[in-house]
UniProtKB/TrEMBL annotation, chains A, B:
GO cellular component labels: aminoacyl-tRNA synthetase multienzyme complex; cytosol
InterPro entries: Aa-tRNA-synt_II, aa-tRNA-synth_II, aa-tRNA-synth_II/BPL/LPL, Asp-tRNA_synthase_2, Asp/Asn-tRNA-synth_IIb, NA-bd_OB-fold
Alphabetical list of PROSITE patterns matching this protein: AA_TRNA_LIGASE_II (PS50862)
SUPFAM superfamilies: Class II aaRS and biotin synthetases, Nucleic acid-binding proteins
GO terms assigned for molecular function: aspartate-tRNA ligase activity; ATP binding; RNA binding
Protein's organism: Mucuna pruriens
Domain Aminoacyl-transfer RNA synthetases class-II family profile: start-end pairs: 236-555
Name of the coding gene: IBI1
HAMAP family registered for this protein in UniProt: Asp_tRNA_synth_type2
Gene3D superfamilies in the record: Bira Bifunctional Protein, Domain 2, Nucleic acid-binding proteins
Protein's UniProt name: aspartate--tRNA ligase
Region (Disordered), start-end ranges: 1-36
Reactions that this protein is recorded to catalyse: tRNA(Asp) + L-aspartate + ATP = L-aspartyl-tRNA(Asp) + AMP + diphosphate
C-alpha cells in the first residue's frame, strides 16, 4: 500500500502503531533476506559456469549470445507453451521457455525449479542421474537467480500427489537446462511479496508472522518487475480488452476512428493545468483532451467519430484518481435534437463492455480479485438516469434523516458524510464525498453501481456546453459514475458560432486563441454532442481498485515522470 | 497542389509559364466569383426570414435554437438517411437532414437543392404549388447558403431521366424546408473546387477554361471544409480501417494493447529532434516513439504488445513524407531465436490488412482514386524478402547498365536517378532516390510493390539494434517498403544490459539518461524484437498519394501548428 493511498479513518491509533511497528519489522527482515541473498548469490557465482570436466556438460549452461543473435531460423513449434502442459503429454519430451520463478535445492542431487510463462507455472525436477543429469547440472540449476529466463527440455510426468506451487498438474523431468538471460541475483522486488494480498499479510500478522509489504513507490520504481504479478498481468489485459470492446462497439455503430494532434497552438481549453512548450519558435501546448479537434471533425462531416489517445493535465492533484497523463477514450457525434441520443450510446456501449469483460476476462478478473478482492460490478440492462436535481434531492433527504435519527453518530460509518462535510450547492458541483454518498444511495434504491447523472448546473461545465432550453442555469450535460466515482463527462455542445464566442468570453477565455475552432462552426455545423472517458478509471473502478496508479502502466503524476 | 510538393522536373519552362498564367487567371476568377457571391448573399439576406404574411409560412424557415437545445427527445427513426433513398420508397413522405451542397433557382417558382449526407447526395425540388409551397418558400430555398444544414420533408418521386448531379436516383418533391445551421454565404473553399482532380483541371485548360485549383495550404487552413470532399472522406475512413485491421490481426495473435507515456524524463532516444518541456520543474521531453517503454513492457512479461499513439519528432523536415507529429503503430514481441519471427508477423499482418482494405473499403478507395488516380497496390501472398546487400547489388547492376547503354539519357524519365545522384555506400543508408529506384527494380523483377529489405548496416540503425551474429557491421534489422518508400522499421533488440550500455555509449548516448530502460534488462530479459509503422504513410502509399499532409487530419510540420 502506498503512503499516498487513503488510510481507513476508522482504524484506532493503537492499531496504527502496531501496524507501523510491523512495517518496520518487515523492512528489517526484508533487508536481512536481501543480505543473505547477496551472500548466497556471490557464493553461487562460482557455479555459474559449466564444469569443463563434466562429460554431461553439454546438457546445461548459459546460452551464448551468438546463439540468440538470429543465428538459425527457428521453428517456433519446437517450444511447448507452459499453458499447454497437461496430462495427455505424459512421457513426451518437451521444450519450454520461461522464467525461473522459484528455485529449491534438495540436497546436492536434486533441485526443483518452477517455470513461469504468461502467468502459467510448471514444476520442473532436476535430479542427478547417470548418463543424463550430472550433480554439476543440479548445482547449476540451484544457482539460477530467480526471474532468469531459461530453456528446459524434459519429459512430462504425472506426480502422485497434486502440485500446490504451480498451475499445471504435470511435472517436467529435466534432461537439459539452459539459461537464456540471467537476472541479477538480488531483485529490488521479490515477486512473491509483490503478489501478496493485504488479507494474507494481516492473517500472517495475527499468527505472529511478519510478511513483506511492497509499497507503491517501490512498485512503480521497479515497474517491470511489479507488472509480472498475476494481478498486474490481469489488470493490463483487462485494460487492453476495455479498449478493444470500446472500439468494436463504436465501429459497429458507424463511428470513424480519428487521430487529432496533441501539439496545439494557444492554450487548449484554457486554465492553468496545461503543459506548455516551444514549437519551432511558436508557443504551444499539449492538448488537455481532443475536445476541440473532435468537434472540428464533426464539422468536417465525419458524422460520428472516436479517438483513443493520451491526454495531458498539468494539475497538481495528488489524489488516488488523478494523473498528469492518461488515456482518453473520446466520442463525438451528430445528434438530431437531444443529448439523450449521446446518453443512449453511453448506455449501450458500457453495458456491452461490462458484459464482454465478464465473459471474456474471467481469468484476469480472478487474478486481480485474488490480490485485491472486489465484488463484481452491479449494473442494470438499461442504465439508470437521474437528473442532477434528483441526485441533490436524494442527498438532502438522506442528510436530514441522518440528523433526525442521531446527531451523535458522526463518528460511525455511514454518517462519515457529515464530518467530512458534504456540501450541497444546488448550482455547484458535487464534491468527491457527495458523489460517493450518492453512489451508495443509488445502489440501495436502484441496485446499480453504474448510472448517469444529467442536467448539470451550467456554471460547473466547460464553455462549449449547451445550456438547457428551459433554464439556462442548467445544461444539456451528464456525468457517469461507477461505484460512486466519475468516469465519464459528456454533453451536447454549442454549435452556433456567435453563441459559442459569447460563452467562451463569459468563461474568461481569450476567444482569439481558439478562433480556428470557433470558425469551424461558421460553415454549417450540425447539432452534436459527445463524451470523454478515462481508460485507467474504467479499469480501476470496474475492478474496485483504490488507486489509479495501479491501472496505468507507467503512471505520471506531479512527482513522477519515470521510469 | 501545394508549393511544397515536388514539381515535375521534366516540364518545360514554357509549360510552366502558361501554368503560372493559368493560376493567376484562376485566382482572378475565383476573386470575382466570391465578390458576386457576397453581393448575392447580401441581396439574399432580405429573404432569410419567413414572410409573416405567408399563410404557408409554417412550412419553411430557420429552426430556432431552442428547438435544437434538447427540447424534445427524438425518435431518430423519423429521419431517413440519404443513402437509403431508393426507388422502392416512391410516393412515401420522408424527412432527411444534410448539407445544401448545391442550390439552383429556376425562375421564381422553382429551385433545385442537392442535399448531401455522408457522401451520398439527392436532388430536391422546391416548386411553388397552391396549398403547400409558396413562392416565398422557393425564395427561401434559393437564398440558402451552400453547406448549410437543412431538414427537408418531401415525397419521393422517380424522375423520367437519370439524375446526373446526385448519387441517388430519386428526387424529393419538397413540402417542408427548415434550415438547422446556416453556413456563411462566402466559403473560403468551394467544395466543388476542392474535389476537382488535376486531370479535370488540365482537360478544361486544354479546352480554354480556367478552373480553380485549391492549393494545399488553403486546404489545410480550412481543413473542416476540405475534409468534406469525397476523396478526403475516403482517406480518413481508410485510415480508420487500417487501424482497425492492424488491431484485429494482432489481438487475434495474442498481442496485448498497451499505452505508454508520451511525457518522459531525459531525452527519449537522443538526437536533436526532440520536443523539450518543463514537467513540474523537471526537464522532460515528448517520446519520439514508444520504443523504450514497449521494450520495458516485454521485460514486464506481456509477451507480445502493440500500441497505437502519437509520436513526436521536432525535425526540420519539409519533405512530402515527414510530419512533426504522427500516429505510430508499434509492435514488440518476444522471439525464440531469430528476427525472422518478427518479419513473419509483418508479412502476415500487412497481407491481411491489404486484403481487408481491398475488400471492405471499395467505395472509399474509388472516391480517392476519382480525385487522385492510382493503381491498386501490387503485393504477393508471401512478402518478398531481400537482404540489404542484395538490394545494393541490384542497384549497382542497374546503374552499370544505364551507363553502358546511353550516357546521354540523363534527362529522360527512368534515368533521373543518375542526375539526382543515387549514392550507394555499402555500409551507409539508402537515400530516398535509391529507395525509389530499388522499388522500381523490385517491381520489374518480382512483380511486387511491397517488400522487406533486411540485414541493414549496423551503423545506420539505432543503438538498441542487435548486430548480426556473423558480421557486426550488419544488424538483425529490416525496413519495409510500399511503392519505393519506407513505411516500417524493425529489428531484433539487444536484450543484454551490459551490451546495450556499450552500444548506447558507442552511439554517443548518455547512458545515465536511459538508466531505467537499461536496468529493465537486468531482471531477466527475453530475446525480443519489434517494429514501428507510420499510419499516415501506410495510407498515403497504399493510395499512391503524393503528400503525407493529405493523410493527416490536422497535420503538424515545422511551419504548421494550426488549426
Amino acid at each position: 500500500m502506498s503512503s499516498s493511498e487513503s488510510q481507513d479513518p476508522a482504524a484506532s491509533s493503537e492499531a496504527q502503531i502496531s501496524k507501523k511497528a510491523a512495517k518496520k519489522e518487515a523492512a528489517k527482515q526484508e533487508k536481512l533476506r536481501r543480505r543473505q541473498e547477496i551472500a548466497a548469490a556471490s557464493a553461487a557465482t562460482a557455479n555459474l559456469s559449466v564444469d569443463e570436466a563434466d562429460p554431461l556438460g553439454g546438457n546445461y549452461g548459459d546460452v551464448p549470445l551468438v546463439e540468440l543473435q538470429s543465428k538459425t531460423p527457428v521453428d517456433v513449434g519446437e517450444w511447448t507453451r507452459v499453458e499447454a502442459l497437461v496430462a495427455a503429454l505424459e512421457n513426451r519430451t518437451v521444450l519450454i521457455r520461461g522464467r525461473a520463478q522459484a528455485i529449491r535445492p534438495v540436497g546436492k542431487k536434486m533441485a526443483f525449479v518452477v517455470i513461469r510463462e504468461n502467468g502459467f507455472t510448471v514444476q520442473c525436477l532436476v535430479q542427478a542421474q547417470p548418463d543424463t543429469v550430472s550433480t554439476q547440472m543440479v548445482k547449476f540449476a540451484a544457482a539460477l537467480s530467480r526471474e532468469s529466463i531459461v530453456d528446459v527440455e524434459g519429459i512430462v510426468s504425472i506426480p502422485a500427489a497434486p502440485i500446490k506451487g504451480a498451475t499445471q498438474q504435470v511435472e517436467i523431468q529435466v534432461r537439459k537446462l539452459y539459461c537464456v538471460s540471467r537476472a541479477v541475483p538480488t531483485l529490488p522486488i521479490n515477486l512473491e511479496d509483490a503478489a501478496r494480498s493485504e488479507v494474507e499479510i494481516e492473517k500472517a500478522l495475527q499468527a505472529g508472522e511478519q510478511l513483506v509489504r511492497v509499497n507503491q513507490d517501490t512498485r512503480l520504481n521497479f515497474r517491470v518487475l511489479d507488472v509480472r504479478t498475476p494481478a498486474n498481468q490481469g489488470i493490463f489485459r483487462i485494460q487492453s480488452h476495455v479498449g478493444s470492446a470500446f472500439r468494436q462497439f463504436l465501429l459497429s455503430e458507424n463511428f470513424v476512428e480519428i487521430h487529432t494532434p496533441k501539439l496545439i497552438a494557444g492554450s487548449s481549453e484554457g486554465g492553468a493545468s496545461v503543459f506548455r512548450l516551444d514549437y519551432k519558435g511558436q508557443p504551444a501546448c499539449l492538448a488537455q483532451s481532443p475536445q476541440l479537434h473532435k468537434q472540428m471533425s464533426i464539422c468536417g462531416d465525419f458524422g460520428r467519430v472516436f479517438e483513443i489517445g493520451p491526454v495531458f493535465r498539468a494539475e497538481d492533484s495528488y489524489t488516488h484518481r488523478h494523473l498528469c497523463e492518461f488515456t482518453g477514450l473520446d466520442v463525438e457525434m451528430e445528434i438530431k435534437k437531444h443529448y439523450f441520443e449521446v446518453m443512449d450510446i453511453v448506455d449501450r456501449l458500457f453495458v456491452a463492455m461490462f458484459d464482454s469483460l465478464n465473459q471474456n476476462c474471467k481469468k484476469d478478473l480472478e487474478a486481480v480479485g485474488c490480490q485485491y478482492p472486489f465484488e463484481p460490478l452491479k449494473y442494470l440492462r438499461q442504465t439508470l438516469r437521474l437528473t442532477y436535481e434528483e441526485g441533490i434531492q436524494m442527498l438532502k433527504v438522506c442528510l436530514k434523516i441522518c440528523k433526525l435519527i442521531n446527531l451523535q453518530v458522526v463518528d460511525k460509518k455511514g454518517d462519515r458524510m457529515m464530518d467530512v462535510g458534504i456540501e450541497i450547492e444546488p448550482f455547484g458541483d458535487l464534491n468527491t464525498e457527495a458523489e460517493r454518498k450518492l453512489g451508495q444511495l443509488v445502489l440501495e434504491k436502484y441496485g446499480t453501481e453504474f448510472y448517469i447523472l444529467h442536467r448539470y448546473p451550467l456554471a460547473v461545465r466547460p464553455f462549449y456546453t449547451m445550456p438547457c432550453y428551459d433554464n439556462p442555469a442548467y445544461s444539456n450535460s451528464f456525468d457517469v459514475f461507477i461505484r460512486g466515482e466519475e468516469i465519464i463527462s459528456g454533453a451536447q455542445r454549442v454549435h452556433v458560432p456567435e453563441f459559442l464566442e459569447q460563452r467562451a468570453a463569459a468563461c474568461g477565455i481569450d476567444v482569439k486563441t481558439i478562433s480556428a475552432y470557433i470558425d469551424s462552426f461558421r460553415y454549417g455545423a450540425p447539432p452534436h454532442g459527445g463524451f470523454g472517458v478515462g481508460l485507467e478509471r474504467v479499469v480501476m473502478l470496474f475492478c474496485g481498485l483504490n488507486n489509479i496508479r495501479k491501472t496505468s502502466l507507467f503512471p505520471r503524476d506531479p512527482l513522477r515522470i519515470a521510469p
